[in-house]
Amino acid sequence: MSIMNLNPDFFAEVVIGLADTDGGEINDIFARILLCREKDHKLCHILWRE
């Protein structure tokens, strides 16, 4: 599943990771989570770092 091809009005992406500085770019990603914005659709897809 490519996150780039999904409708941003329907889905949100959450990135969990670490940055070198406070407010800096995340450079060590632990997981990427895809959440559905519609409360009637219970979709959550997690891609964990291997």
TrEMBL record:
Cited InterPro entries: dsDNA_mimic_put (IPR007376), Put_dsDNA_mimic_sf (IPR036763)
Protein's name according to its UniProt entry: DsDNA-mimic protein
Superkingdom as given in the UniProt entry: Bacteria
Taxonomic placement: Bacteria, Pseudomonadati, Pseudomonadota, Gammaproteobacteria, Enterobacterales
Gene: yciU_1
Pfam families membership: DUF440
